Amino acid sequence: MGSVFISIFGSVIVAVGTISAALGSTPVNYIKSNLRNDLNLWGNVLQAGGNALQADVQGDVLRTVGKEFQSIGNSIVVTGLVIDFNKEIDQKLFITGNWIQALGGAINVGHGLELSPFPGHSENLIGNILQVTGNSLQAIGGINELRNSDEKGKDQKADNENSLTTKGVLNENKNNGYSYGDYIEQNNEQSETLVVMGSWIQATGSVLSLIGTIKEATLDNQSKSQ
Question: What are phi and psi of 181, to 5 degrees?
């Protein structure tokens, strides 16, 4: 009963975490920026913890490995949110973390396709597919934002240099170059859409996986009690 409870509890934590992170990634006027950041941070923390709990009680090696990859991916995203790196490194950690989560989900999808149908099987399979899709969209959105921000930064740096040359003004910070953090704050609409859409697709997948886990765990518990 203990492993059944832990499995369900881990799935609940993951579902709550993905929904929290999705809310944090959604630009809405009635949620302040600081609160969105907290939702995103704690959402990923919950996902990392929930996936780690599930990895501890999974009986199959592939399912365990898949959950461990997802937990590692969330932990990498959390690292970028907690530690005060520059914006470029934070974005790269976000991209890497989502790709690793997608890899973990893909491992679970591949394993699920090999299994014979059982109660909760289809929910788990579709849920994992949605989570892979969501994480992949978030990673692609992050890549696009990083690329666009880099291009904007180069253009702005060139404009600044031209302006300084024309005016004959000495730039006392010239040796420091142009900081990535000065321009990454300008969000690309398409990139943001991909991240938000991916977050909610992942959240939907985690809820489906929770339903599948409850059905599967209940069946296992009934089989053991007979």
Answer: -65, -15
CA atoms of 98 and 76, how far apart (whole Å): 9
Retrieve residue 68's tokens: 């461990």
Q: What is the pLDDT of residues 175-210, one digit of tens each?
A: 444 333 333 344 568 889 999 999 999 999 999 999
Which residue reads 């302040």 in tokens?
Answer: 32
Going by C-beta distance under 8 Å and a sequence separation of 6 or more, which residues neighbour residue 107?
62, 65, 66, 69
Q: Does 119 have pLDDT greater than 50? A: yes
CA distance 119 to 196: 31
**Taking the complete model, does pTM exceed 0.85, yes or no?**
no
Please provide the DSSP assignment of 158-197 as one string.
Answer: HHHHHHHHHHT---TTGGG---GGGTTTS--HHHHHHHHH
Q: Where are the alpha helices (DSSP H) in the chain?
A: 2-25, 33-57, 61-82, 87-114, 121-167, 189-225
Hey, what are 168's tokens? Answer: 């004959």
